[in-house]
Design a protein that fits this description.
Chain A is α/β, with parallel strands linked by helices. Chain A is 31% helix and 20% strand. Chain A has a single domain, classed as Rossmann fold (3-Layer(aba) Sandwich). Chain A has a seven-stranded parallel β-sheet with strand order 3-4-2-1-7-8-9. By secondary structure, chain B is an alpha/beta fold. In chain B, strand 9 and strand 10 form a beta hairpin. The radius of gyration of chain B is 19 Å and the shape is globular. In chain B, helix 1 packs parallel to helix 3. The chains are: A alpha/beta, B alpha/beta. At the A-B interface, strand 5, strand 6 and helix 3 of A face helix 2 of B. Bound molecules: S-adenosylmethionine (SAM). S-adenosylmethionine (SAM) binds next to loops of chain B.
Chain lengths: 198, 274
């Protein structure tokens, strides 16, 4: 069970995805075990005016606690945080979430770069960053931030993506540690679970 | 976000501002403040040292800086379901006891929220019964609010929100088009007093029946949110209402005990104790 040679140091997982990532995200959330030991901080591009239904749809097959956090909500292990529609979501020192209505970044709010970069600043080398399928370049800079701070970076294999623009952009912008198919990403998270528990 | 800014740089900058000027950003939420300052460094193509020296020595720079770092993004009838709750629940409840009442928009930005309120009140037939105050820390954005002129291209989204709010007519009835701009009817803002006011360091505000402070406190840390909530408590008449953004929460503030949450979905609080 040490395929990815993961260390125990990790404190959080951050995931970004856009067009074509929803089903993958559902599968990830359904596959990881309820007692997953790290917080999972997620930014998926989504429709602006649909405030409801997103978390419900993600929760259908998952036994994890999935929430759209309030501003300044504290970050706890095992909980899945989803960026709310029309807000950027950042991680704040002191382990809380901050929301913001700043200008769109890469035509998106929430923007993946913002969630990823702010997480990288707080968790540094203790962060796992995962980027899934998507149709624009959002997330590339975020993965770069994670890599520069010494965190570990994973992108979904472009061949495995519904739309491969996003992982390809990340691959061209920075050093990515692992390029994995969705099933392998799930193996990766299970290994992370085993290594980081208690 | 090419440049990176250390927490220590950020602290130095906020300390310099606090010492040299009347503004205190030390308790703003770090993540967004940092992005805003990095944006200034990039736009002006300057180093942290240059920024600090301009903040200390360059006449008028602090005003420019203030405009750059505040987040002014706003819409008319933002979160239409909130505006529906105002129309159906909150305002009727105020009207039970007061024919005339006062509203304060704290952090009104370019004024879209204020014009939305005026339109709502007009459609309820009570615009002339209500006194409105609109304040913001940034004088530049406040001037824009006073003017009430918006790019026409923004009106599409505003109109969509207005339709979701179930408005009585069309937003077009409240503005005229000129040179690519929507010019809001002057009659809407007649009862509005625009005022520069800083929620952090400013004096107490007059007492009102309803405060809207939406998407402003998200830029503050929890300590500052708590301080500002105390100020709102003293600026509200007993049984007055406070509306915050739908993704904000005050449960970690001590003084929240003196409020009840009357609409959880839209985050409307009511003061129940002095
Ligand atoms: C995102 S806008 C909110 C606009 C509107 N209320 C809405 O929800 O659409 C935030 C505003 O808060 C203002 N602001 C920030 N700090 C402030 C302070 N200390 N006192 C008063 N206003 C402040 C900013 O200048 C900005 O215009």
């Amino acid at each position: 069970m040490t395929r990815f040679k993961l260390e125990k140091k990790y404190k959080a997982v951050v995931i970004g995805g856009s067009a074509g990532s929803f089903q993958g995200m559902v599968k990830i959330l359904e596959s990881i075990k309820p007692d997953f030991p790290l917080p999972i901080i997620t930014c998926l591009h989504r429709l602006k005016h649909v405030r409801h239904g997103f978390v419900e749809a993600l929760s259908l097959k998952s036994n994890k606690k999935i929430i759209e956090p309030y501003d300044k909500e504290s970050i706890k292990p095992g909980i899945v945080y989803i960026a709310p529609s029309n807000y950027h979501m950042s991680v704040e020192l002191g382990n809380t979430i901050s929301l913001s209505t700043e200008e769109m970044v890469n035509n998106s709010r929430p923007a993946i770069d913002i969630t990823l970069c702010s997480s990288a600043h707080v968790y540094r080398e203790k962060l796992v960053g995962i980027l899934l399928s998507g149709a624009n370049k959002d997330g590339g800079l975020g993965m770069k931030c994670i890599s520069e701070k010494g965190g570990i970076t994973v992108v979904q294999d472009p061949k495995d993506c519904v739309i491969d623009t996003m992982p390809k952009a990340a691959l061209s912008m920075t050093n990515i540690d692992h390029v994995l198919k969705l099933d392998q990403i799930i193996d990766f998270l299970n290994e992370l679970h085993a290594v980081c528990k208690n | 976000m090419i440049k990176d800014l250390d927490i220590s740089d950020l602290r130095t900058i906020t300390e310099v501002i606090k010492k040299t000027h009347s503004y205190d950003f030390t308790n703003y939420a770090m993540s967004s403040l940092k992005r805003r300052i990095v944006r200034v460094l990039e736009n002006y193509k300057i180093s942290v040292e240059t920024l600090i020296s301009r903040l200390q020595n360059q006449e008028g720079f602090i005003e420019e800086f203030l405009t750059e770092i505040t987040v002014n993004v706003t819409e008319m009838f933002r979160d239409p379901s909130f505006w529906l709750a105002l129309k159906k629940e909150v305002i009727p409840s105020i009207l039970v006891n007061h024919e005339n009442f006062k509203i304060w928009h704290a952090g009104c930005s370019s004024g879209e929220e204020v014009y939305s309120m005026a339109i709502l009140l007009k459609e309820m037939g009570i615009l002339d019964k209500v006194t409105l105050f609109a304040s913001d820390i940034d004088p530049v954005i406040l001037d824009r609010a006073k003017k009430g002129e918006y790019p026409l291209k923004n009106m599409e989204l505003n109109e969509k929100n207005y339709i979701r709010f179930d408005g009585a007519t069309s937003l077009k009835d409240y503005y005229t088009e000129k040179d690519g701009k929507a010019i809001m009817d002057k009659s809407l803002a007649q009862a509005v007093t625009f005022k520069k006011h800083d929620l952090v360091n400013g004096p107490a505000f007059t007492k009102v029946d309803l405060i809207l402070c939406r998407n402003v406190m998200i830029y503050f840390n929890q300590k500052l949110q708590n301080d500002v909530l105390n100020k709102f408590h003293s600026s509200l008449f007993k049984y007055g209402y406070l509306a915050i953004g739908s993704k904000e929460s005050l449960i970690w503030c001590d003084i929240v005990k003196k409020f009840i949450l009357v609409n959880n979905e839209e985050k409307v609080y009511r003061k129940i104790k002095d």
